[in-house]
């Protein structure tokens, strides 16, 4: 413990719907993120990706497990010091660039909200300079600080959301599908900007997405999530060049190919958990290499590796 920037151990997040039924949104997920790296979390809608991000940053109270950030346990009751440490050193970029911005506040005040709450400046001039500096890095003009969110395009609003997170100079940024609401032409610009700022700030990213091509581009390591379980994790090369779990293979087979000839030959591989005979709760993690592991029983692991 303590050697990784973030370490998640056996994280569980359950939601009680009724006396008879509880949704196990996240069920025993473990992974780590090192300083300055990007960990991509992929999976279909409803797999628990966003829930993991919200549990880590404590928008949800974790049902079980342990989360350690910079050597501080942030999974239990938070004291004043631990709460301040979490809220100043970890930030989140939300999926919907309009819903996460207060329509009654000017952009300059939205970006400076974290600075104001934690008093991370000595005077108004320093506050203003921090806001202007991050706005310029995000491709926004200084005069935009006096405008309201509805006066911007979707891509500009997402840049405002990213600026609000990065102005705090966090060590970990949880990016919850930050480009899914953007046009394809804007997505690459935003991701490239995030990568540039990551190098400048030395921050780590938990990049949550369902676009595997973009995850491959930005991530150092990838975790594949299905039904609240981390079924496979490894480096980008491990996942894309040597997938083991049938769900991972199914996701990769669905990626469209830019080459028309290869696209015509591509066939999607189906995976149905209900009829597969697989039970995630019975499996354990089997290591293919130091960086690559898959969730399976011994029999499933041997069958998938040889098959």
Give the quaternary arrangement of the chains.
Answer: single chain
Please state roughly what percent of the residues sit in beta strands, choosing from under 5%, 5-15%, 15-25%, 25-35%, 35-45% or over 45%. 15-25%
Largest sheet: 8 strands, mixed
Q: How many beta-strand elements?
A: 12
The Rg value, from CA coordinates, equals 20 Å
Alpha plus pi helix count? 13
Mean pLDDT: 90
Estimated helix fraction: 25-40%
Describe the structure.
By secondary structure, the protein is α/β, with parallel strands linked by helices. 37% of the residues lie in helices and 23% in strands. The protein has 13 helices and twelve strands. The strands form two sheets. Strands 6-7-8-3-9-10-12-11 form an eight-stranded mixed beta sheet, with helices on both faces. Strands 2-1-4-5 form a four-stranded antiparallel beta sheet, covered by helices on one side. The radius of gyration is 20 Å and the shape is globular. The two termini are 36 Å apart. The mean pLDDT is 90.
Secondary structure layout plus pairing:
Blueprint: E1 6-16, E2 22-33, E3 38-42, H1 49-56, E4 64-69, E5 72-73, H2 80-89, E6 90-93, H3 107-111, H4 113-118, H5 124-137, H6 154-166, E7 172-176, H7 184-201, E8 204-209, H8 212-218, E9 221-226, E10 229-235, H9 236-241, H10 246-253, H11 260-265, H12 273-276, E11 284-287, E12 293-296, H13 298-306
Parallel strand pairs: 3-8, 3-9, 6-7, 7-8
Antiparallel strand pairs: 1-2, 1-4, 4-5, 9-10, 10-12, 11-12
């Amino acid at each position: 413990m303590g050697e990784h920037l973030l370490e998640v151990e056996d994280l569980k997040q359950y939601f009680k719907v009724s006396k008879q039924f509880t949704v196990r949104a996240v069920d025993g997920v473990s992974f780590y993120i090192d300083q300055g790296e990007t960990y991509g979390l992929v999976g279909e809608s409803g797999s628990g990706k966003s829930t993991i991000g919200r549990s880590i940053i404590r928008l949800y109270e974790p049902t079980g497990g342990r989360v350690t950030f910079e050597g501080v346990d942030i999974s239990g009751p938070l004291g004043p010091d631990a709460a301040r440490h979490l809220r100043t050193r970890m930030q989140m970029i939300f999926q919907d660039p309009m819903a996460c911005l207060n329509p009654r506040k000017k952009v300059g005040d939205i970006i400076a909200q974290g600075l104001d709450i934690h008093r991370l400046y000595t005077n108004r001039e320093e506050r203003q300079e921090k806001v202007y500096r991050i706005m310029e890095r995000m491709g926004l003009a200084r005069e935009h600080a006096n405008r309201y969110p509805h006066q911007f395009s979707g891509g500009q609003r997402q840049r405002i959301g990213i600026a609000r997170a990065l102005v705090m100079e966090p060590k970990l940024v949880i990016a919850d599908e930050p480009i899914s609401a953007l046009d394809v032409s804007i997505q690459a610009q935003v991701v490239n900007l995030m990568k540039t700022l990551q190098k400048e700030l030395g921050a780590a990213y938990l990049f949550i997405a369902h676009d595997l091509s973009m995850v491959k581009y930005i991530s150092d390591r990838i975790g594949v999530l299905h039904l609240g379980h981390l079924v496979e994790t490894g480096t980008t090369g491990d996942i894309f060049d040597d997938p083991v779990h049938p769900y991972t293979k199914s996701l990769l087979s669905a990626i469209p190919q830019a080459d028309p000839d290869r696209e015509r030959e591509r066939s999607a591989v189906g995976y149905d958990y209900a009829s597969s005979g697989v039970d995630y709760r019975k499996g354990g993690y089997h290591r293919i290499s130091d960086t690559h592991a898959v969730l399976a029983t011994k029999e499933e692991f041997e069958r998938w590796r040889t098959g």
